[in-house]
Amino acid sequence: MNTVNGLDRDNLNFNLGGLHQKILQWGASLAGYGDVRPGLAKEFKHIPTAISLAIRHPPAESSIIRQNGVTAYTNQFPEVDNKLIVIQKKIVTYLRMQGWRALAIPPDTAQEDLRFIARLFPLFQHKTAATCAGLGWIGKSGLLINSRYGPRLSWATVLTDALLPVSEQPYLKGNCGSCRKCVDICPSGAIKDEEWTRQSTTQVKIDVSRCARQLEKNYQALGRYICGLCILACPLGKRVTEESSVPKTKEG
């Protein structure tokens, strides 16, 4: 018998067939599978497939803050992150009930977790999962960009050893082209106008110190370390986030 963890592999594959649709039904705007073995930390080698999922942000206007002469956009949405966590738990339960290993890496703003396993979360980036799953690329701003929603998404990941149909078209480079919207709007001049490539993932494309100084200035005016003008400026997804359309399940 062809088995995994003592269970019949063919039966497991059959049961996994409806997972993608379930994730969307549970509330995700996007979902995809990616092979993340290259560069995967040793702690995760036994779970080499990433399920990348995202939920789009609320309409931008409701998230713009104007105060003391400063305009900023908050991309922190606790209610969205909480929904992602609920979906992750359902995915993990679904997979484990079928004999697969699964580990949820929560949204970045929800990683204040006191469990020992939480120490491993910083070893894996949601950007890696999404680019490998073909759901988006890393823009000049350093943000994860989806062709439909732009940077207006919150992301989460589930790592697993399940035999899922991983994307055959992972993103290996950026797709921003000649667009400079985020470069031009950045008040600190932190964005370098350089395209991301898979080979240059470890190279910082923004001036972190300039970005940090701007956040400090905004804190003095707004009482919060936020800016987000690069999100507002990105032309991708501006109209879609104002619509109540059916989420796309694939890029392109």
TrEMBL record:
Keywords: Iron, Iron-sulfur, Metal-binding. Gene3D superfamilies: 3.30.70.20. It comes from the Bacteria. Residues 168-196 form the 4Fe-4S ferredoxin-type domain. GO terms for molecular function: iron-sulfur cluster binding; metal ion binding. Coiled coil: none annotated. PANTHER family: IRON-SULFUR CLUSTER-BINDING PROTEIN (PTHR42827:SF1), IRON-SULFUR CLUSTER-BINDING PROTEIN-RELATED (PTHR42827). This is 4Fe-4S ferredoxin. It comes from Thermincola ferriacetica.
